[in-house]
Amino acid sequence: MKDIQNIYSSIPPSIPQELFQDILTTDTFEVKRIVSKGHASPKDFWYDQDKNEWVILLKGRAGLLFEGNNKIIELKPGDYINIPAYRKHRVEWTDPDIESVWLEIMW
Known about the structure:
Blueprint: E1 19-25, E2 30-36, E3 53-59, E4 62-66, E5 73-75, E6 80-83, E7 89-94, E8 100-106
Antiparallel strand pairs: 1-2, 2-8, 3-6, 3-8, 4-5, 4-7
């Protein structure tokens, strides 16, 4: 049995790039921790994934944008969203002053 771990531990003081950490991976799904601090998707880049994605924001703030919709969806701690496969989306912004900690499940 693995030692108990904490979703908020081992966050480096400086995060030049978004931090992606595998928590659990099987043949059918993946669980990741994502840590952002002022990060956003590159200009004109859209995630277009072949898997469903469920994500919850545990800490921080972030803005998501879906293709074909001009309204940014603002997430705060506790907010979660299910993103169907092939639904193009992007991270417009994350809070530059505090880490945004996400839990992502892909299947």
